[in-house]
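Worked example 3 (structure in, sequence out).
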């Protein structure tokens, strides 16, 4: 049986991740081919040669480089299918493309990276098909099969004959097989739901997504039945995939203990492979689902969680933001801007010993450390211990610290009033809107003058004035701000998903799906000031406001900072 290069890569990856104690059989053709492809992958993605030394080369005729600064992935992207940046087209470097003659390439989709200038970039010129020899020539000397000297921005690599052959073998494997989850007529997606999430929140999450899929399938059916019309032919030319593929959305409900979730995910996937996970919702962290996506190389787009996995090197899971960690970091930046460095007064951080409290504290501490600020004093609240009853907190407040940060839920508000009436009021009191939840406006009047709250969304008043989608179908049926917020996160998901699916056309590859998301220009969506991606970025919304509350029974949120980016 012939084993494809992509199958070899997948086999090795799963073997290493799932059974690190099982070595490859040395000397087998599979091991040799797999090792070679992994070496090629190291060159392509990381600029590391099989010897372990950095890849060397030259750009703009006389600028030497070493390592990943000009690795292939920087321009040709992970899928090898190329990129568009600032009106510059970087062509596909997959074997499927290189070893075919190029007569004409249509300009990229509007809305992707190359359309920011307003004019689509010119298509690349024709050329004959590459051979191994001419591909080696372009890698080493920058001359294509037509004898055309490529732009100086294309590196000329210093590669041995063997390393050149290794890289070429890997290029032939790039995007060589359609990704799992694709059939002749259907693109399969799934959304993951953990069973403790209330039904109304699940409905709010999945509603906009299901509406989008219903409309997509309606158009696909329409254009297939009228495929000979001029409109359908134009549509098909611009979006081959959408002409034929319907989208099927499965609900993967995870039950029981988190320790069992991984096996449940694997069983769902065995039963029906999916191209990507979209949305999804949990009240806890996303670590099990994240690991499943990374291991199986399945894109996971915008799950609803305040506790994402913080790992900039992973590839397949894209989050709306860094969640509570991001709020903590924004609070630290605000404190640094308000307090002069010479202020020696203490900064006290009171942290509920919970995943949410620890995530906020982690972001706060990391941002302080990154900016070179001194670390304050942290007090952990165990179990149901109240803020005001903790002896350490009482003693620290008595010393009149400059800042008190309280990472706790609404129950913390009950005891804060008595604690801060002691005459030891700090200059700033920091709280988290996400941790307070629907009680964010319950901060007592007596310390609203010092209470500052991290708020990771557009302010409600601005949202009402700005949001075209506040009155979209179904939004009026959502009775609470929390449910409307959940639905709007899914609207952001739909905006990104739609652009990425259209841009793929008939190149239905998971890595290309994610590459296209990286090239989407900044999006104006509900709830967030803006969302954006770039190559390698995993978090779409990168900011947070610091707000205060007006006094009275119906307080309004007031901005006390710009959109604090992290």
């Amino acid at each position: 049986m012939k084993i494809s290069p992509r199958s070899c890569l997948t086999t090795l990856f799963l073997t290493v991740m799932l059974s690190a104690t099982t070595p490859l059989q040395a000397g087998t053709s599979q091991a040799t081919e797999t090792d070679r492809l992994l070496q090629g992958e190291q060159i392509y993605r990381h600029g590391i040669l099989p010897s372990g030394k950095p890849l060397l080369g030259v750009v703009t005729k006389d600028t030497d480089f070493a390592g990943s600064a000009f690795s292939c992935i920087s321009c040709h992207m992970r899928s090898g299918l190329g990129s568009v940046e600032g009106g510059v087209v970087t062509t596909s470097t997959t074997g499927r493309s290189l070893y075919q003659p190029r007569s004409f390439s249509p300009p990229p989709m509007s809305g992707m990276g190359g359309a920011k200038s307003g004019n689509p970039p010119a298509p690349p010129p024709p050329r004959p098909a590459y051979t191994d020899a001419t591909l080696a020539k372009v890698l080493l000397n920058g001359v294509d099969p037509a004898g055309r000297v490529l732009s100086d921005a294309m590196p000329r690599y210093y590669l041995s004959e063997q390393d050149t052959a290794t890289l070429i073998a890997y290029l032939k494997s790039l995007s060589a097989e359609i990704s799992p989850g694709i059939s002749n007529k259907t693109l399969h997606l799934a959304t993951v739901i953990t069973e403790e999430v209330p039904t109304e929140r699940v409905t709010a999450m999945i509603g906009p997504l299901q509406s989008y899929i219903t409309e997509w399938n309606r158009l696909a059916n329409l254009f297939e039945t009228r495929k000979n019309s001029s409109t359908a032919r134009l549509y098909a030319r611009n979006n081959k995939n959408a002409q034929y593929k319907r989208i099927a959305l499965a609900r993967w409900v995870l039950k029981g203990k988190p320790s069992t979730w991984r096996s449940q995910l694997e069983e769902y996937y065995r039963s029906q492979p999916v191209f990507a996970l979209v949305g999804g919702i949990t009240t806890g962290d996303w670590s099990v689902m994240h690991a499943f996506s990374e291991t199986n190389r399945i894109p996971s787009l915008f799950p609803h969680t305040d506790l994402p996995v913080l790992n900039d090197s992973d590839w397949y899971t894209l989050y709306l933001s860094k969640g509570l960690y991001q709020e903590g970091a924004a609070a630290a930046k605000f404190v640094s801007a308000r307090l002069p460095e010479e202020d020696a007064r203490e900064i006290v951080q009171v942290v509920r010993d919970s995943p949410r409290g620890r995530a906020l504290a982690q972001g706060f501490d990391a941002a302080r450390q990154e900016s070179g600020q001194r670390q304050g004093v942290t007090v952990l609240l165990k179990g149901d211990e109240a803020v005001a009853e903790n002896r350490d907190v009482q003693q620290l407040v008595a010393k009149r610290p400059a800042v008190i940060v309280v990472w706790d839920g609404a129950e913390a508000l009950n005891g804060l009033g008595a604690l801060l009436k002691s005459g030891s009021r700090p200059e700033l009191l920091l709280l988290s809107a996400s941790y307070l939840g629907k009680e964010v406006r319950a901060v007592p009047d007596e310390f609203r003058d010092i209470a500052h709250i991290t708020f990771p969304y557009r302010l409600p008043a601005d949202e009402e004035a700005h949001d075209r989608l506040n009155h979209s179908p179904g939004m009026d049926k959502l009775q609470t701000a929390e449910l409307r917020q959940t639905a709007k996160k899914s609207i952001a998901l739909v905006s990104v998903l739609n652009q990425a699916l259209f841009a793929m056309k008939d190149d239905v590859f998971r890595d290309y799906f994610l590459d296209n998301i990286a090239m989407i220009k900044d999006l104006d969506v509900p709830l967030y000031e803006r969302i954006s991606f770039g190559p390698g970025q995993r978090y779409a919304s990168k900011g947070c406001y610091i707000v205060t509350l007006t006094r009275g029974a119906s307080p309004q949120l007031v901005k006390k900072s710009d959109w604090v980016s992290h």
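Notes: Residues 5-173 form one domain. Residues 1-28 have pLDDT under 50 and may be disordered.
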